[in-house]
Amino acid sequence: MYRRWFLPALAILLSIVLVACNTANTQQLQTKVENTTGATNTNSRQLPKGSAKRVVALSSLSADIISRLDQTKLVGITGSRLFKNDSRFKDIPRVSEGQNPPNLEKVVALKPDLVIGAEGFSNIPIQKLQQLGISTLLTKVNSWESLEELTKTLAQSINADPQLLLNRYKTFLLDKSTQSPSILALVSRQPILAPNKNSWAGDLLAKFQAKNIAADLQGKNPIAGYVTLSPEKVLEANPEVIILVNPPQGNSEVALLDSLKKEAFWQQLQATKNNRVYVFDYFGLVNPGSIDAIEKACQQLKQALFAPQS
């Protein structure tokens, strides 16, 4: 059961965090944003000369941010499940379905003056749109600082004020620095995959002063920001708290937990013995997804890390 959803999950992880190479004949302005973790976020952009008035967002996070900055500027969005019951997006055309690539004919028909994509997933359609003379922005969010920078960039592109949204982000975090217990976040069993500090999940854990066991680990895993752990390594680390991540489809909370229960080391962990194993949604923790998804993940982290233990 688990492997049926892990492969799509792995594909989405790859699409979010792998850096795709731009073609040599594509003229783009590179903006690098240094964050406090030392990682570098690169936004490739070919922005319109003036304020954009018709924006198509190929990622759910960008669509959500644009909507909150100025709903009137958004004319097309991706077909994310995050928007299924959101009235803000009820009448906005979808240019893609689920995880499928966008329909470029639908995008062009909307006459956008800016199309926003996610690096690693939208590189090819973005390059094709650039060849048609359409202004684009290719983004990557792998840290809290890059989320703030993206918000400022999008606000600038549509001549909006980002401050209210930036202020809201601050409410998601801790009021004061509090040392939290050791933690291990797992997104799969075969292999046992965990985020280090160079991922959105890892950076978010750091924002909550979590002692992420995998934070400083490096490996040859093809998914940037994630490392493969052996059962022996997990048992040796013996985290106080374990977070398990739902598949992107969100259709099975117990799949990963049930599979891990079959492992010999699982019952020996202090997190298991103390009933401190928590299930999180893929959106918010692994893929930021939307502002509400991020807020929910932050609320869950506060509960998992700092709630009084009986």
Features:
310 residues, 12 strands, 12 helices, four-stranded parallel beta sheet, six-stranded mixed beta sheet, 36% helix, Rossmann fold, alpha/beta, disordered N terminus, 2 domains, single chain
Structural notes for this entry:
The protein folds into 2 domains: 22-172, Nitrogenase molybdenum iron protein domain (Rossmann fold, 3-Layer(aba) Sandwich); 182-306, Nitrogenase molybdenum iron protein domain (Rossmann fold), CATH 3.40.50.1980. Strand 5 (114-118), helix 4 (123-131) and strand 6 form a beta-alpha-beta unit. Residues 1-44 have low confidence and may be disordered. It has helices spanning 2-17, 60-69, 104-109, 123-131, 144-157, 163-172, 200-207, 231-237, 255-261, 270-273, 282-285, 291-306; strands spanning 29-34, 40-46, 55-57, 74-77, 114-118, 136-139, 182-186, 192-195, 211-212, 226-229, 241-245, 277-280. The strands form 3 sheets. Strands 1-2-6-5-3-4 form a 6-stranded mixed β-sheet, sandwiched between helices. A 4-stranded parallel β-sheet has the order 9-7-11-12. It has a two-stranded antiparallel sheet with strand order 8-10. 36% of the residues lie in helices and 17% in strands. It has 12 helices and 12 strands. It has 310 residues and is an alpha/beta fold. The protein starts with a helix and ends with a helix.
Q: Treating each run of at least 4 consecutive H or I residues as one helix, how many helices?
A: 12
**Segments where pLDDT lies below 50 for 5+ residues?**
1-44
Share of helix among residues? Answer: 25-40%
CATH superfamily of the largest domain: Nitrogenase molybdenum iron protein domain
Strand content: 15-25%
Question: What would you call the shape?
Answer: elongated
Structural class: alpha/beta
Question: Rounded to an integer, what's the Rg over CA atoms?
Answer: 20 Å
Number of domain units = 2
